[in-house]
Amino acid sequence: MNNEMKDKYQLSPILLYFLLFVSIIDLGILSYQKTILHFAGYNAWISVFITGIGVHVIVWMIYRILSSFKNEAMDVIDVNRICFGLIIGKIFDAMIIFYFFYGAFLMFRGYLSIVQVWLFPGMPIWPVSLVLIILIYYTVTGGIRTINGLSFWGMLAVIACVLPLLFMLTKYLHPLNLKPLLNHSVTEIMLSSKSMVFQFLGVESLLMIYPFIQSPAKSQKWAHFAVLTSTALYVLLLAITFMFYSENELKLLVWPTLHMYMILHVQFFQRLEHVAVSILCITIIANLSLSLWMASRAARRSFSIKQHRSILVFLFAFLLGAVFIKDYDNLMAFIDPYSATGFYLLFGYIPILFVMMQFKKNRNKP
Amino acid sequence: MDNPKTAVNTLTQMIHALQKSSDFKTNTIALPYQEIFISYFITLIDETKLQESLILILQRRSSESPIRSTEELLPLIPIHELEITDCLEVIHQKLFKGYVVIRLNEDDQKCALVHIPNQIGFRNSNDTENEFSVVGPKVGFIEDLDTNIHLLRLQINVPSLIVKEMTIGSMSHTRVAILYIDGITNEEIVSRIEKRLKEIDFDIVFDSSQLDQIIADNSNTPFPLFMSTERRDRVVYSLISGQVAFISDGSPYFITGPSTLFDFFISPEDYYLPWILGSFFRLIRIFGVIFSLFASALYVGVMTFHYEVVPHSLLGPLIYSRINVPFTPLLEVLFLEITIEFLREAGARLPTKIGQTLGIVGGIIIGQAAVEAALTSNILIIIVSLSALASFATPIYKMANTIRFLRFPIIVLASIWGGLGIFIGVCFLLVHITRLKSLGFPYTVPIYPFRAAGFKDSFLRLPYQINHSRPSYLRPKLLQRYKPKDVKKHKQEWDEN
């Protein structure tokens, strides 16, 4: 296992926070209110809490898995090799590569459709895709440090997008909307939690970036902190949304966060949703680049494909796919399998790895 | 051109070859017991000094007994830059630096070299001309290396200020001095800069800024990766914060590094004003740069695509001002931006007095006429001239140029994809500056990699009792600069001691 990173490629623990925060919070922040409403109605904020706690457990498990062997920092490729052997391990590797790539692609196309809906309805897709692809290529070839730097700005962008909603909407809110506090069954709330897992996808990137962290043990608190802050952000924004819209109204909207923006205005600016969609570009690019970096890194580690080549293949597939998918409704069909896979990856695959690694560790001990 | 060095093997041949130039003189001084031969470039040496400190002394000494060997000259001549050598290459180089060659016999290989340079051609005034400050010293550097180092030594009175000299340039043999403070500066920086400078193969070095481009980590960037300054206080400040400075002979600009993006928004004046004002002015500068980068692009984006983001009350005047303008916003903005670039470029090249007149002609008359001829809108003129003004709020001219250049791609992007285009441009910029390195150190410290302590002296200039350590990203050997005054923490009652 040739996993010893040179010191200059490594990230100090606090930087992990930005990476994780940005890979958790992405486009979902514009529309998640609607999806989790489906089962638990206005009790859904409890579901967000529950999912948050679940994800904390997953993060803890990931750390236990990857630090099983004290003297070497592993990533998921090594773990697959240890748990499943060479051939089955490679099949899992391939699935993980495809999973990261597919997630990045959905984000890419999803963002473009939001731009099409909110900013430029008649915009042809391929020119803007091309420019974004060049941008992503430039980011990914800068390595994990560049992606991390952009994630920092991406995090600021998310904050800049969400803070006005938290503070400027106060006079339009109806706190009584939140009542009754509990009128759904436990099953409904759990089902909502399950659909909320999709918004937390991104923590699994820890599986790949772990060996790049300087002192992994210290970084765990930052990983948990990233999950904590994103949970808090989701809950707060959800509460604001619930107080702003009535339940039936909210069901009709596709992007409630952006709709809330429409009412805001400052002295010389109104319709801030235009600004918000544009600013989110930074976050999306950071998020995408991280996923593609992980996919190409996994491809290199497992199949020894040069990162430059794999990234070009991925980006070319982006361009084709972006033109192939017609609109947002069309895209939704592609999202469901991803979100299901993501759920089983977090709450199936990772716990299995966790149990297997505990066994392996105990066998190695005596 | 043939290198004269390759054709000659003896000193006599070399002197013979040099005599092709009419300013090269070889004189024979006839003394009572012997003849002495001296050769020099008359344009490079000080003739009166030659008379006083060389010829007169030689005459006086040799009236008693003949001088037998070159070594006997050493105690005679009251100039300490004096050496005896028979190495042709050294002689050749020194001749061009204002040395005089003394031979006792015409075909001697061994000779004495005496340094008698003249100082004509250097300006006497060393006021800072391009980096002006209202408060604080106005001492700047001139085109002479020794004077510059002298100026620095006057302020840093410790033996640990190290000057390392080398020569660069196959034809100019320019002296380049690297300065740092021993025991503070991280040696890795010094060795890195030394290594890069030594690897340079170049013909003539005109200015330090050429060297700075050659040794830069990434030459395909509009951003300056090293600070270049003509101000003494700025160089001293970088030296004591653990950076390295270098300068080439003949250039009034010191290059200091490794630099970060935010160094370019620091003016020495910030340290001479109360910290509240200093911090305020820094923020103004950073705001100015952001404004200058995006103002015209925002105008293009809003006027082309996003009318709806402008409130009604403001939309009226906006539309009214460009109701007669026949061009698209992009063309309108480019027209004005390029006019300003013309003005700047012409103003910078013209003599000062004409430049001022031109500013009035350009700024007022062209602007006024352009609006009356309905080529541009009033509001755009305000935006463009404000952003031109703001771009020059950065204290370093190099950075101002970068900012001025970067607006154009952003304007074009804004004209294609509006707000999204602007932020695509921002993304490119952010990725680019994150990828940049100055001498291997990240360019965007303290934002990324994030260092909370770095904010004390980057965006803000906090008071001296807080701001007492060197920037940690430079990994200085001694972090603490000075012991701060104790801050009184206990709360006293008012009106009582």
Radius of gyration of chain B: 30 Å
- Which spans of chain B have pLDDT < 50 for at least 5 consecutive residues? none
Secondary structure: number of strands of chain A: 2
* Topology pattern of chain A, helix = H, strand = E: HHHHHHHHHHHEEHHH
Low-pLDDT runs of chain A: 1-5
Could you state the CATH homologous superfamily of chain A? Answer: Amino acid/polyamine transporter I
Rg of chain A, Å, rounded: 21 Å
Average pLDDT rating of chain B: 86
CATH topology call of chain A? Amino acid/polyamine transporter I
Beta-strand percentage range of chain A: under 5%
Compute the number of structural domains of chain B. 3
Mean pLDDT of chain A: 88
Distance between the termini of chain A: 22 Å
Quaternary structure classification: heterodimer
Q: Identify the strand order in the major beta sheet of chain A.
A: 1-2
Helix tally of chain A equals 14
Number of helices of chain B: 15
Structural class category of chain B: alpha+beta
Strand order of the largest sheet of chain B: 1-2-4-5-3
* Main sheet: strands, sense, barrel of chain A: 2 strands, antiparallel
CATH class categorisation of chain A: Mainly Alpha
InterPro entries (chain B): Spore_Ger, UPF0353/GerABKA_families
Family (chain B): Belongs to the GerABKA family.
Keywords (chain B): Membrane, Transmembrane, Transmembrane helix
Protein name (chain B): Spore germination protein
